[in-house]
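Slide 14.
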Amino acid sequence: MGQAKKRGSLEERIKQAQDRYYGQESTIEEVRQALGLPEDAQALGYIIHLPDQDEFVSTIEDNDSIFSVGYAKLPELAKVYDQPDQAITDAKKIKKHKLLVCVLFESSKQYFINDLWANY
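Slide 15: predicted structure.
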């Protein structure tokens, strides 16, 4: 998670993420290269990150009877979405936390995330 600090303050990263989401489209490969990630870093999909708690949404259940969200400390336990719009739709349902929708990358040594959207 130390990569985030190199990209500026939380507010700066949120602004950058929103500008990227609304203002331009980048391929996963372009993001990987821009972040200077290792060659073996593979994009796994999109996740919902709670930056204040440094947790990730692991489960979300929303139906007529219940709305329930589970959280995990480890990114490998996060619920992974195939499309950013799916993650953003679920993130908008969670009102009580600051959230970031991020791309999750995995290399042979560690996980990396890159902000894409914020709810604040």
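Speaker note: The radius of gyration is 14 Å.
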